[in-house]
Design brief:
The complex is a heterotrimer.
Chain A lengths: L7 H22 L6 H21 L7 H27 L8
Helix pairs in contact in A: 1-2
Chain B lengths: L18 H36 L1 H9 L3 H27 L2 H31 L34 H37 L9 H25 L7
Chain C lengths: L20 H5 L4 H29 L10 H37 L7 H23 L13 H5 L4 H28 L12 H33 L12 H34 L7 H14 L15 H29 L8 H24 L1 H7 L3 H31 L5 H28 L13 H31 L42 H12 L1
Helix pairs in contact in C: 2-3, 2-4, 2-15, 3-4, 3-6, 3-7, 3-8, 3-13, 4-6, 6-7, 7-8, 7-9, 8-9, 8-10, 8-11, 8-13, 9-10, 10-11, 11-13, 11-14, 13-14, 14-15
The chains are: A mainly alpha, B mainly alpha, C mainly alpha.
């Protein structure tokens, strides 16, 4: 597979998007949105990370195998977090008679 | 792949058939390595998630005591360095040696800036006794903070537990410390690249080292993209 | 095919291509690195064995008379640390895998030969830390390093040992990474995924666990060391931390690590069963995918080590259920191996004896694993000798049998020499008897309630403990015999033909020992895996080859 050369124009666009999102995430964090603060912050972070992975790291133009590897990394992380939290989240379910 | 096809490229190792196979192997290897990095940082993120959900008030208050401006500037510095790194890769792809070296040096300068700012922050924390250690000569101390008592998402934070505050700082230093270590390793790699580029080792056919180092550098940037909101912005809404 | 009379070893091969210590310590040849690993893991196997001997001597009598309780704690800890991190995890992948992966896929070397050498050096450095820890008095936390004991109270060399485990982990990551890339990018022309030997599939699955799991133990040990150094509590409940988080992180790696140990052995067994019964393996794709399934499911079950921690019972149920699910691909393998034997032209040479041993032990170890996966039963036998017996049936009965079987099977390829078949069969028999005598009584002891990790026990357990210790001494002798005749064969053994077993597989299509670049010319594969012709015809040619 021949290598795909990404044009600098795309890099500059992504750079501007990342900068804007950084400003947005800081501005939003100053508002008290309750639980939504964390959700917004993480959504923006995921978008930024995705932009970096797809364009700066060329995954958008890479083989399917690269996609699988990137996906596997995050999927396994999700397994670790989800199953561990399945313990902590369900501990309160069982009420023991005093 | 045929045996008769002999590529006489300087960068081709003896055990590969051609430069294409070598490039493919290198890219895949780097991605596999980054997967291990994801899992490595993942353990720290798991600890973070757990303790933040256990001690939301203390995490917000402790986070508010960090220097958000410096964190913000550092985020921008890293994003800039990712851009210069991406442009360095571009220059290596089209075979422009001089701009390649310039962009690599720029990336290094930005990386160093990040570390210097980080160092200033660490020093601030050191002076405030916010480094979570218990040595006879130096101990973690929490002497209250302006935001204590301000309700965090409706929960009053009148009394914060200094042990839980310390937990935040432990996680803060573990995460940013491991991240900074990766930056330092990255600077070492970039130095090697500059030296190789100066000797004219890279061509449009052979520039895998630049490309792979770029992947690593962007990955370190991504880690920070998550660290910034998770560590600095948790308590930003407390006034 | 060649006959015995014609065998002349190749004039230059990887062993004599270059000479001198430097040519070995700076080699990037995967075959030489495999031999470096062979020497290292053999050393640590016997070091770990010494600690086991100490444990079994202490347990001969109910009283604590041979060593003090403190010393005993250090002995079983060092036994576990050395055996698991320095022997079982690297044994098959780093020795047999390193040697065979490029040969089996028709490549000249692994994708990253220098990283391969680096991984051996990292292993050596890590092992050195562990040895230093032993010399400074060892560590007494158990190989699991449970907090807060390890982080706050233990006065052993926790950090030094942890550093050793941390460093060795990176060697394991690099090996896994190398295998994955090699298998993806360097297969010979025509060698499609479903033509690969099952050994390769097993190593691919193992490598996935290595790169996905090992970093987590690294970061866990890092946190543990930071906690111990700085006296802050991420895991210490007295300081606001959570010790169960340590267990989650630890077992997220350490349970899959069991599959790092046993999956490569399964790969070896698949090779042995198919080649020694001269049949294509029954249900090739099932066996191949079972390896991947075990690797994937292996990551979903770690909570079954934590049924009696404060883990939520609901999480316990999920983990219990998922643990049962791992039995499915494991059983698929066992069924397919036995089905392969059916109407095969089976030879009973030494490697096959180990393969039979493996299947039997793996069934016992696996089935008792199901007992332990059951939430209620585990509460009863948790931390008893039942658990000890169970995992030794998997690790010693599984991994070491697979390792020895593989070592015997590929020894002619590795060294170019044949060992004494009679002695080898005798050793296999001694190991079989010694192993069962050592570990079967431990099932009974555990069932009767003898807890693990104690240096003294009630007198009624003595008979079974003496049986176990007697078995251990037989087992020890059994492991020493191969060392003698294998080393002897390197000098005095008859030269081996290229394909002494009449086996299928690319590694047998090059000379024994292979040339430095493995093949005179790049092989082009036009046949399926384990393609054998008429069994009767092959049996005759094998007779000729073995003389």
């Amino acid at each position: 597979m021949r290598e795909h050369i990404v044009s600098p124009k795309i890099y500059y666009t992504i750079f501007i998007a990342l900068t804007v999102l950084t400003v947005v995430t800081w501005s939003v964090a100053k508002l008290d949105l309750g639980k939504m603060n964390a959700v917004v912050a993480m959504t923006i972070a995921v978008i930024k990370a995705t932009l970096v992975v797809l364009y700066f790291m060329h995954v958008r133009y890479s083989s399917r195998l690269t996609w699988v590897f990137v996906g596997a990394g995050f999927f396994w992380l999700a397994i670790m977090v989800a199953l561990t939290l399945s313990d902590y989240m369900t501990r309160g379910w069982l009420t023991i008679a005093q | 792949m045929a045996e008769s096809h002999i590529t006489t490229h300087a960068g081709l190792a003896h055990h590969f058939d051609d430069i294409e196979q070598q490039r493919e192997a290198g890219t895949l290897g780097m991605w596999a390595f980054l997967v291990t990095e994801v899992m490595f940082f993942g353990g720290l993120f798991l600890a973070y998630i757990l303790y933040r959900s256990k001690y939301p008030v203390e995490f917000a208050v402790a986070s508010n005591s960090l220097n958000v401006t410096m964190g913000f500037i550092n985020t921008l510095v890293l994003i800039c360095s990712s851009l210069t790194m991406a442009l360095a890769v571009y220059c290596s792809q089209i075979g422009k040696r001089r701009p390649l070296i310039v962009f690599l040096l720029l990336t290094m300068a930005l990386g160093t800036t990040f570390l210097v700012i980080k160092g200033v922050e660490y020093h601030e924390k050191f002076v405030e006794h916010h480094i979570p250690v218990r040595f006879p000569t130096y101990e973690f101390k929490w002497e209250g903070h302006a935001t204590e008592g301000v309700p965090v998402h409706g929960e009053s934070s009148a009394s914060v537990d200094s042990g839980r505050i310390e937990m935040f700082f432990f996680i803060y230093f573990a995460m940013t410390g491991v991240h900074a270590l990766h930056m330092i390793i990255g600077l070492g790699i970039l130095t090697t690249l500059v030296l190789m580029a100066r000797r004219g080792r890279f061509t449009p056919e052979y520039h895998s080292p630049v490309e792979l180092s770029g992947l690593y550098w962007h990955f370190v940037d991504i880690v920070w993209i998550f660290l910034f909101p998770l560590l600095y912005l948790v308590g930003a809404h407390l006034h | 095919m060649e006959t015995v009379a014609e065998i002349t070893p190749p004039r230059t091969h990887y062993l004599n291509a270059t000479y001198g210590v430097k040519s070995w310590l700076l080699t990037t040849d995967h075959k030489r690195i495999a031999l470096l690993y062979l020497a290292s893991v053999t050393f640590f196997f016997f070091l770990g064995g010494l600690f086991a001997a100490g444990i079994r001597i202490e347990l001969l009598t109910p009283q604590g008379d041979f060593v003090q309780a403190e010393t005993y704690n250090r002995m079983f800890t060092m036994h576990g640390v050395v055996m698991i991190f320095l022997f079982l995890i690297p044994a098959i992948p780093a020795v047999l895998g390193n040697f065979l992966v490029p040969l089996m896929i028709g490549a000249r070397d692994l994708a990253f030969p220098r990283i391969n050498l680096l991984s051996w050096y990292i292993y050596t450095v890590g092992a050195l830390f562990a040895v230093l820890a032993i010399l400074f008095g060892g560590v007494d936390t158990g190989w699991t390093f449970y907090t807060p004991y390890s982080s706050t109270y233990s006065n052993g060399n926790v950090i030094l040992t942890g550093l050793g485990v941390f460093v060795v982990g990176f060697s394991s990551i690099l090996t896994g990474l190398n295998f994955i890339v090699t298998i993806h990018t360097m297969r010979a022309p025509g060698l499609t995924w479903f033509r690969l030997p099952l050994f390769i599939w097993a190593h691919y699955a193992t490598s996935l666990i290595m790169i996905l799991g090992t970093p987590v133990i690294a970061v866990t040990i890092l946190l543990l060391a930071l906690e111990r150094l700085a006296h802050v509590g991420i895991f210490d409940p007295a300081l606001g931390g959570d010790p169960v988080l340590f267990q989650h992180l630890f077992w997220f790696y350490s349970h899959p690590a069991v599959y790092i140990m046993v999956l490569p052995a399964m790969g070896v067994i698949s090779e042995l069963i198919a080649n020694m019964s001269r049949k294509r393996i029954f249900g090739y794709k099932f066996v191949a995918f079972a390896s991947l399934a075990i690797a994937a499911f292996g990551f979903l079950v770690w909570g079954h080590h934590m049924f009696v921690s404060t883990q939520s019972v609901y999480a316990g149920m999920v983990f219990s259920f998922l643990s049962y699910a791992v039995a499915i691909p494991s059983a698929v393998k066992v069924f397919n191996w036995t089905a392969t034997l059916y109407k095969g032209s089976i030879s009973y040479d030494t490697p096959m004896l180990y393969a039979f041993g493996f299947i039997g032990f793996f069934i016992i170890g696996g089935m008792t694993g199901l007992f332990l996966a059951a939430l209620g039963v585990d509460v009863h036998v948790h931390d008893t000798y039942f658990v000890v017996a169970h995992f030794h049936y998997i690790m010693v009965g599984g991994t070491i049998m697979g390792y020895l079987g593989g070592l015997h099977y590929w020894w002619p390829k590795i060294t170019g020499r044949l060992y004494s078949e009679a002695w080898a069969r005798f050793a296999a028999l001694v190991i079989f008897v010694g192993f069962n005598l050592t570990f079967f009584p431990q099932f009974l002891l555990g069932y009767m309630g003898m807890p693990r990790r104690y240096y003294a026990y009630p007198p009624e357990f003595q008979v079974l403990n003496v049986m176990s210790s007697a078995g251990a001494s037989i087992l020890g002798v059994g492991y020493l015999i191969p060392v003698i005749y294998l080393i002897w064969s390197m000098r005095y053994g008859p030269h081996a033909p290229a394909n002494p077993w009449g086996a299928a597989g690319l590694e047998w299509r090059t000379s024994s020992p292979p040339p430095t670049l493995n093949f005179e010319q790049v092989p082009v594969v036009t046949w399926e895996a384990y393609e054998f012709g008429d069994p009767s015809e092959n049996a005759e040619s094998r007779m000729e080859n073995r003389g």
